[in-house]
Amino acid sequence: MKEIQTIYQNEFGVSFYWKVENQTCHDTVQLVFKETGLQLNANELVEFKCLIEDSISKNKCCDDCSLKSNCTKYLLKTPFHELDLAMSIAEMDLMNNLISTTLFKINLNDYQSGMGRN
Q1: What is the superkingdom listed in this entry's lineage (predicted)?
Q2: Quick check: is 69 in a domain?
Q3: 0.85 cut: is pTM over it?
Q4: How far apart are CA 4 and CA 8, in angstroms?
């Protein structure tokens, strides 16, 4: 089994880098959620985050509902134009958290190992 370096994990999924021969591959991030795995580069992560936020804002309709956005599934566009995902608003919120925090940690690590080094 290949080794991984976890970036972030929440109750919905996990993001990580693959390790090859004890070297961490920072070119792409693997997202695993539900029964799905996606491998994205940094630009695709940012694009996916924007697509999620757009979908949440367009489909948020359950403010007064007791199920609070958990019952209906909406098609969520991905950076891969041939692939859409069916998710509830609650799942999109968790996915947004997964991607946003992953991007934050990547940027923080880049800063600490780059410009932020003394």
Answers
A1: Bacteria
A2: yes
A3: yes
A4: 12
